Amino acid sequence: MPSKTSRLMLTTLLCLPPIGNATTLHRCEAPDGSLTFTTLSCANDEHLSLQEVRPYSPGSTVALMPEARHEEISGMNIRKREMAVVGRTQDKCGDLIDARQKREAIINQRIIAGMSQQDVESALGKPDKVSIRNSATSYRYDLKRGRSAQVDFDEKGCVTGKAKSRIAKSPR
Q: Taking Cα atoms as reference points, which of 26, 62, 67, 28 lies closest to residue 45?
């Protein structure tokens, strides 16, 4: 009958990851430069080199690629360049307000000059009435208790000034 120590030792050994699971592959390079990895031998005209492959074991840190050499190599021409911003979106309203101001205005349901029609609709919803005269557009929002708000846009679809709030006659 095995002792408790031998049972513990056997259990510990069974839980250890296998160490010797490396496999040797043949790396065959043909005269035209194509590579073939196989466990079989290479053709007669191919150059053979052996590659040892180990399976990935979770928790291990194995570098997949060699580390980059950051030291300067002789003969390198290193030029420092200015950083360029690529792909920056340009606001059709002339960047009068920045993204933070626009976001706060939408959240607080306020209208600021420089907002687009889409921004106004995000803040206040779809308008109750849309009026188009010449190239200017106006949105009208009927609010509670007979009040209304009007937002005017220019030909580019940008808010021209602060929203005008007027008291309209109550239907009652």
A: 28
Which residues, in sequence order, are bridge partners of residue 38?
26
pTM for the whole thing?
0.43
31-81 residue pLDDT tens: 998 888 888 888 888 988 888 877 766 666 666 666 666 565 656 666 677
Contact 161, 152 (CB under 8 A): yes
Cα 130 to Cα 7: distance, rounded to the nearest angstrom: 83
Q: Which two tokens stand for residue 50?
A: 């052996």
Characterize the bridge pairing of strands 136-142 and 147-153.
Answer: antiparallel
Enclosing H/E stretch for 11: helix 4-15
Residue % of the chain over a pLDDT of 70: 65
Q: Which two tokens stand for residue 89?
A: 């979106």
